[in-house]
Design goal:
It is a single chain. The protein has an 8-stranded mixed sheet. It has a 5-stranded parallel sheet with strand order 2-1-3-4-5, sandwiched between helices. It has helices at 15-24, 51-56, 70-79, 94-107, 121-131, 165-168, 172-187, 263-275, 284-298; strands at 3-8, 28-34, 60-63, 84-86, 111-113, 138-146, 194-201, 205-212, 215-222, 229-236, 239-244, 247-250, 253-256. It folds into 2 domains: 3-114 and 265-279, NAD(P)-binding Rossmann-like Domain (Rossmann fold, 3-Layer(aba) Sandwich); 117-261, Dihydrodipicolinate Reductase, domain 2 (2-Layer Sandwich), CATH 3.30.360. With 300 residues, it is of the alpha/beta class. The longest helix is centred in the middle third of the chain and has 16 residues, at 172-187.
Length: 300
């Protein structure tokens, strides 16, 4: 039986990834699409004028609408009993995100945030290395995730809202930094990252220092770096591991995995739908990561 999916919001860079996964998975079907402005031509045949109509036509919902619309859409989907996948951040502020989490939990409807770095095979491999103490006693961690979207026109037209703090809530540092904070929490769940200080480059990106896995952390994230990409470096008494995109380097040894792919969040959501089992903290992950970044920015 096909799983009918409703897409709420079409002006996000990852909409193409969502549609690509739906098209490639034989049991997924796009049943409806809604946007407050215009639904793109290729999917206009499933366009509806109300978010409620889209939700009613589907078994599950993917929310890519602007951040200021996400709380209401999450609650609508949850109250209708439709499992949901929502882009991060799930609200303009961490406090509002926690309110969304509580409302969704109250409905007993499962939800996930689209934190696709946690699906990266290399991240799981690196976590296993840390658990086995392959690097010895840890000394430092550095993390960077960036792209050149702001200087390549990614946030023009229907995506211009992403550069408006009143609609997006975060800029380049928060948008990609959320992924890094969540990835670091995956690596060391018993010692979640703490950000102590930040330096922002306007709305485009920034840098931070703090602690992760119990050792000093430096973090860089933003939308104005070329060539950009993902890099995590963890130094220890017995060696240093560097994860670049999907490849881990430790000395002369190399482990090759798939690079980061926003579509992996959709595939993980679909896998949960198939077996009807969802993690209990699916939305809390995004709220926690947003709180970590927001708290440090507020201290500036």
């Amino acid at each position: 039986m096909p799983i009918d999916v409703a897409l709420l919001g079409c002006g996000h860079p990852h909409v193409a990834d969502v549609l690509g996964v739906i098209a490639s998975e034989p049991d997924l079907r796009l049943a409806a699409a809604w946007d407050e402005d215009v639904v793109p031509g290729p999917i206009s045949h499933v366009s509806v004028s109300r978010a409620e109509t889209a939700i009613a036509r589907a078994h599950a919902v993917v929310i890519c609408a602007p951040t200021d619309q996400r709380p209401a859409l999450c609650v609508q989907a949850a109250r209708a009993g439709r499992p949901l996948l929502v882009e991060k951040p799930i609200a303009l502020t961490a406090a509002d995100a926690r309110t969304v989490v509580r409302e969704v939990e109250r409905s007993r409807t499962p939800g996930l945030a689209a934190l696709f770095l946690r699906e990266l095979p290399a991240l799981r491999r690196l976590r296993a290395m840390l658990q086995a103490r392959v690097l010895g006693r840890l000394a430092s961690v550095s993390a960077a995730f960036a792209h050149a979207g702001a200087i390549e026109g990614m946030f023009e037209g229907p995506r211009a809202w992403m550069r408006d703090p009143r609609r997006a809530g975060v800029g380049g540092f928060g948008d990609l930094g959320l992924h890094l904070v969540d990835a670091l929490a995956v690596l060391a769940p018993d010692e979640p990252p703490v950000i102590a200080a930040t330096t922002l480059d306007g709305n485009l990106g920034g840098a931070a220092v703090g602690r992760a896995a119990g050792v000093p952390l430096t973090l860089h994230a933003g939308w104005a770096t070329s060539p950009g990409g993902l890099e995590l470096s963890i130094a220890g008494s017995a060696g240093t591991a560097v994860l670049r995109e999907g490849v881990i380097h430790v000395g002369d040894e190399r482990w090759v995995g798939a690079p980061p792919d926003a579509g992996e969040a959709v595939r993980a959501f679909a896998a949960c739908l198939r077996v009807r089992r969802f993690p209990r903290d699916g939305l809390e992950r995004a709220a926690s990561a947003q709180h970590v970044l927001e708290s440090a920015i507020a201290l500036r």
